[in-house]
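Hi W., the zinc ion complex you wanted:
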Amino acid sequence: MTMEYLQELSEAIGVSGNEEAVRRVILKAIEGHVEDVKIDPMGTITALKRGTDGANRPRVMLAAHMDEVGFMVTGWDGDGLLKFTAVGGIDDRILPGLRVKVGEKQLPGVILWTPIHKNREQAVVKMTNLRIDIGAGKDEVSGKVKRGDRIAFDSTYMPIGDSIIRGKSLDDRAGCSVLVDILRGGEYPCDILAAFTVQEEIGLRGAQVAVKALNPDAALVLECTTAHDLPNPLADPDSHDPRDLNPTTRLGMGPALTFMDRSMVTAPQMVALLKSAAEANGIPYGFKTQLGGGTDGGAIHKGNAGVPTGAISIPARYIHSPHAYLHRDDYANAVRLAQAALHAMTWEAIKPL
Ligand SMILES: [Zn+2]
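Structure:
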């Protein structure tokens, strides 16, 4: 595990469709470790890492998405407060009072809230009623922001204790960082077709295009997924225990493998390949059986004439918020599992069962 670039990746701002800052970090990190680096018309980075036995092995696409959820400026009121809309899936209820960064210049702002002595009876929070206050009056605001400017969560990357990393956009900068570490960290028998994709959070759009250009024989998606190991704050306060006592994803359990989510039913041979690679190498893993969410695999497995695709996901708490938590061991084990899977990737292993 190196994680050398995770902080820089987490702190870079790349709300879907505007991933430039993340792209710069990745291009720097992979330089000299890959060949044939390209940026496709949508902004996805693709690169080739040649395998030691590439001619006899399937060509494997490894995908991680560069974009993060955030917001976009849609206008402003007469008092200079910004109206905005979400880019990607964000829960309106977490927003009031959060710090954000607006536009290219990363202007500091706060999402408005009303002090408790005014809002004791306030009903549900709706994004359309919220505004962002950048401290500008109506005459200044048009000189500072434009409609379409992206808005990102304002957050600081921080190790907590010995095992936890806290940061923005670990979904999916952790996946990007795993892919960087794989490309920098060793030799593999098969050719790796790396794809750092764009616009995953708004519909797997970059991956849809990248898979056509790369035409892989198999694919692995490197992701971050929700850890289901917390009590539910919306549970009835009188219920005996609002906690899911059998969470399928937990911090520290190892990477999660997916049978099915909203975007894909994982090819059984890819589940089997990942499971046996983990077991043969003593890598802890679990199965994610909550079926929500999706990954770039949703687009990749339907690419070209069909691509057997698996997903390796690091469980993280509080994804799609300013502060996600992940466990260092899960990260390290995701790298190890992806590397073990690359060594096990043969034509025989990816054949439909
Ligand atoms: Zn993601």
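The chain has a mean pLDDT of 93.

W.
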